[in-house]
Design a protein that fits this description.
The protein is an alpha+beta fold and about 180 residues long. Among the domains are: about 40 residues, no CATH class; about 80 residues, Phosphatidylinositol 3-kinase Catalytic Subunit, Chain A, domain 1 (Ubiquitin-like (UB roll), Roll). The protein contains 6 helices and 5 strands. About 10% of the residues are buried.
């Protein structure tokens, strides 16, 4: 399903003149302001370079024999950054059905690359539902496709509105 999202992303970028360039510019400015490398700019040794910079920034130099285990754990943590370095989206998840309960924490922040299917699985887990297929997620009262990324939803359905992205969930309605 990831290739479908990339195709949709390409279509949106082609339909909205200058959007891709503006997004890349904002992303670069953000990372430069934080003094970080832009993800995807340098291929290959990014993790080890960042690790090297971090150890020098903290004023410590590590020897291989003393910190082999620690270094491999740090590298593993960096490899598993769980999309924290992705562009983030703030979301408010509200229930619009009396058949389901609301979430205790309806405000979440996650990667813009997360899909509607990820949200369905998240909600189903939080509400102890037997299947995420029992849910519909809507934006502006329109059912969202499971493969849509949150970035796509923001760009196409929430264009000029302020964050957070307001999404509603309800039990899936089967059409006759």
């Amino acid at each position: 399903f990831a290739s479908h999202d990339r195709t949709m992303q390409d279509i949106v970028y082609k339909l909205v003149p200058g959007l891709q360039e503006a997004e890349m510019k904002k992303q670069r400015e953000f990372y430069h302001k934080l003094g970080m490398e832009v993800p995807g700019d340098v291929k290959g040794e990014t993790c080890s370079t960042k690790q090297h910079l971090d150890s020098h920034r903290n004023g410590e130099t590590k020897t291989d024999e003393n910190s082999n285990k620690e270094t491999s754990e740090e590298k593993q943590e960096e490899d598993n950054d769980y999309h924290r370095s992705d562009e983030q989206v703030s979301i408010c998840l509200e229930c619009n059905s009396s058949k389901l309960r609301g979430l205790k924490r309806k405000w979440i922040r996650c990667s813009a690359q997360a899909t509607v299917l990820h949200l369905k699985k998240f909600i189903a887990k939080k509400l102890n539902l037997s299947s995420f297929n029992e849910l519909d997620i809507l934006c502006n009262e329109e059912i969202l496709g499971k493969d849509h990324t949150l970035k796509f939803v923001v760009v196409t359905r929430w264009r000029f509105k302020k964050a957070p992205l307001l999404l509603h969930y309800r039990p899936k309605m089967d059409l006759l």
